[in-house]
Amino acid sequence: MATGVIDKLKSHVATLSQISGEAEHVDWSKIETPTDEVVVPHAGLEPAPKDTAEIKALLDKLVVLKLNGGLGTTMGCTGPKSVIEVRDGLTFLDLIVMQIEHLNDKFGSSVPLLLMNSFNTHDDTQKIVEKYSKANVQIHTFNQSQYPRLVVDDFTPLPSKGQTGKDGWYPPGHGDVFPSLKNSGKLDLLLSQGKEYVFISNSDNLGAIVDLKILHHLIKNKNEFIMEVTPKTLADVKGGTLISYEGKVQLLEIAQVPEEHVDEFKSIEKFKIFNTNNLWVNLNAIKRLVDADALKMEIIPNPKEVDGVKVLQLETAAGAAIKSDLYNVRDGFVIRNKLRRDPQNPVIQLGPEFKKVDDFLSRFKSIPSLLECDGLRVDGDIWFGSGIKLKDINGSEDLDIRHQESVLKLESREGWLCRACLLRWRNKSFLNFCCMSLVVFAGYHVKLYGF
């Protein structure tokens, strides 16, 4: 382990000792909403240049970096999460490469792709990127740091207790991207190639695209750091938000919120913006701050258990609809379907039976249409046939699609064996009734009432 990484870990442990194994909670009375000078509407940004040569000059200063350290194991997949199929046989990584290649082809630019792997994803990624050798995208890979998990009782490294395998270690969160970029040598390499800015995002976020308006704003105003935020929705209530705290703007994660204020944190009325984790950062600023050890990010202890031993991971933060007809894919870009009239996406909540990718795919003969759906919640062993349209009737009561063990299995005309489901209609008399149509025959329109 590099000396710099060891020093950083010691610093984290020292800080952890002061906060007694819990995330350092903020003083709730000091939290303020960021000003309009800090949060700038995208619509208010100056348009990007239209001249191809000017756009090329902007893009040639840029590097796209994807956080590629996560595994797809929780979804029943092996290997990096970025190689999970999204649509039509294309993976997240396929679409990312297509997006950047489209920019380079269109404007004659040379935007490279960096993949920050973890020790969990490095070997697989090295093999996978070979398939892009002929793409008009230069691909670099590097590893983020690898820290030992700490035993809660005495803060000793878990590997020293005999756990020498991968379970004794962890990648320390996406805030590690800045020192890892420097320690890997990639930062100095990029600066020597004339690159000035990096666009950082998660590898499974296909909405994170190179926005020329933001890039133009970044360069023209000489900003060193920009975070993309969006209006917070009910699907984002646990996500980080921006706050003004003791005169400084910072990211607030749910782990830092005092327990008595968690419900308030989840409110979309008080905390109206959501951190997308799409970051635009000046490369020279990263070098300056990392060299001076001036990047002091809040540490978020993440409790885990390994073979019955309670451990901590010290992490820092840098700041299902895809398969549906809500979006179209063109040149690797995910584009909103114009036939969807509601500007908001529906909130989709699927039960544990849909968590693993194979289970998810097996329960949908084809992905239902969501163009007229305001929200969907499905619990239980429920299967959908082909040609299903999920619709909403405004003004009606909530409707949940739930599973009832006592209902017999039925066979649809498509030959599927599946359980009937219970539609719990929350009307004034709280009556339940069984809806056999949700064993869903081909072409049946399922109406969702005012979710």
UniProtKB/TrEMBL annotation:
GO terms for molecular function: UTP:glucose-1-phosphate uridylyltransferase activity. GO terms for biological process: UDP-alpha-D-glucose metabolic process. Keywords: Nucleotidyltransferase, Transferase. The keyword Transferase applies. It catalyses: alpha-D-glucose 1-phosphate + UTP + H(+) = UDP-alpha-D-glucose + diphosphate. It holds the Pfam family UDPGP. It comes from the Eukaryota. InterPro entries: Nucleotide-diphossugar_trans (IPR029044), UDPGP_fam (IPR002618), UDPGP_trans (IPR016267). Gene3D superfamilies: Spore Coat Polysaccharide Biosynthesis Protein SpsA, Chain A. Its EC number is 2.7.7.9. SUPFAM superfamilies: Nucleotide-diphospho-sugar transferases (SSF53448). Substrate binds at residue 174. Belongs to the UDPGP type 1 family. This is UTP--glucose-1-phosphate uridylyltransferase.
